[in-house]
Amino acid sequence: MVTGRKKSFDLKEACVRAAREVIAEQGIEALSMRDVARKLGISHQAPYRHFESRDHLLAEIMRRCFVDFAEHLDRRKSSDGNGDHEDMGSAYLAYAAQKPLEYRLMFGTPWPEPARHPELVKYAVHAFDILRNSQRAKYGDLPTHYAKADLDALFIWSTLHGMASIMQANVMQHLVLAPGVMPRLKADLMHKIDAALEASSRPAPKPGPTRRKPATR
To answer: I want to staple 59 with a disulfide (CB 3.0 to 4.6 A). Which of 30, 112, 143, 176 is the partner?
Structure first.
C-alpha cells in the first residue's frame, strides 16, 4: 500500500526531475511552475504543494547540484602525492566536462534570493572552502595568513573556472590547435598555476642602491 507521505515525496522528486528536463531542453529562462506541471500531466497548482515559487524550485535544483559537486570534490584522490589543489583542479575540470548542465546551473545561472535559501549558500560555500582550507593548511591555519590563502584560492578557482567555461564554449569546436595541445592542456594548466603560486610566495627583491646623478654645471 502506498502511503500519503510516499505520494508527497514522489511528487516533489518528480517536480525536480521535470524542472531539470525543462532547463535542459529549453534553457533556464523557460522554467516555470506551469511548464513543470504540464510536463508531469498534473494540475497547475500541484507543484506549489512543495515549492512556494519557481525560484524555490530552482534553488532546490541548484542546491542539489552543489551537493553533488562538493561530494565529487571530497572524493578526489591524489595518485602521485602532489598538492591538494592539483587533485581539486583535476576533479573540478572533470566534473565540468562530465556534467555540463549542472556546472552551468551552479556558475552560469543568477541565484534566487540567497537569504531565502540558506541551504543553497551552505553547499556552494562548502565547495570553495575545500580549496581555501587546502591553502590555509599550506601556509598555516593562522589569521595572519588568511588573506594570502584566500587570494590564492580565488586565483586557482578563477583559472579553473575560466578553463572549464572555455571548454564548454562552442568556439572550441572551431579552433585549429597544434597537435598534442588538448592532451597536454590540463597538466599544463596545473603546472602554470603551481609556477604562479610559487612566484607569488617569494619575497619581493630588495631595491638596489639609488645612484645619484652627477651635478651639472
So the answer is: 112
